[in-house]
Amino acid sequence: MRHETITDAWLVVPVFNEAEVVADVITEARKTFPHVVCVDDGSGDESASEALRAGAVVVSHPINLGQGAALQTGFDYITAFTDAAYAITFDADGQHDPADAAAMVDRARDEGLGFVFGSRFMDRRTRPGLAKRVVLGTAIVGTRLATGLRLTDAHNGLRVIRRDALETVSLKQHGMAHASEIVTALAATGLPWAEHPVHIRYTDYSRAKGQSLLNSVNILADLILK
Fold it and tell me: What number does CATH give the domain 9-225?
């Protein structure tokens, strides 16, 4: 389904050394979401200039602080400088599909939802490896125990957050454990929510970087050590 341009939602794209792909990712996304804030988290490459070239607003951290910190900077930018009704967390490496994000905004709007979580496990389009499934399964159990939310995919990076919910989020976990912290903060709002099936595109690029499994392991390590 082709969506019209969505102007009342901003993408928040944390970036760390993604110069090879970030311009293409932002260019594709801006066909549906013209408003993108890209938080360059201390990259050592040309990520920031590539994001600017693709039409994003770029906010830069002088040093690498972690994805949680980058997301919080993006959230702060949206609440301080825009009148956006929704924020969408969106990865810089090409794994997320803008069409899924648009469908999630539609659902949030139509059903009056405070937030919508993407889930790669609600249909068969995404096929993560066994190790990835095991780590994410552990995270799902931990998230259910901590928040009471019965999620099927506790650490999917594609999320739609309505402005009133966004204003309650203040991330302290700068590492990958921010994913659990976001769920906890949003659950505390008591606002209606949903999960929505999405396709995670495990590309040659993302596999070569090894981010998928590494990030999942980092999530568990951060949660244990925090």
Answer: 3.90.550.10
Q: First CA to last CA across the chain, in angstroms?
A: 42
Range of 111-115, 118-122, 212-216 with top mean pLDDT: 111-115
Instruction: Using pLDDT thresholds of 50, 70 and 90, give the confidence band for residue 219.
Output: low
* Count of all residues that appear for the chain in the document: 226
Domain residue ranges in the chain: 9-225
pLDDT value at residue 91: 96
Degrees (nearest 5) of the Cα angle 115, 119, 122?
125
Band of the pLDDT at 151, cuts 50, 70, 90? Answer: confident
State how far the Cα of 173 lies from the Cα of 69, in Å rounded to an integer: 7
Q: State which amino acid sits at residue 50.
A: E
With tokens 């050592």, the residue in question is 44
CB 151 within 8 A of CB 186: no
What would the two tokens of residue 130 be? 């066994």
Which class for 28: exposed (0-12), middle (13-18), buried (19 or more C-beta within 10 A)? middle
Residue 193 sits at φ, ψ, to 5 deg, of: -150, 170
The one-letter amino acid at 157: G
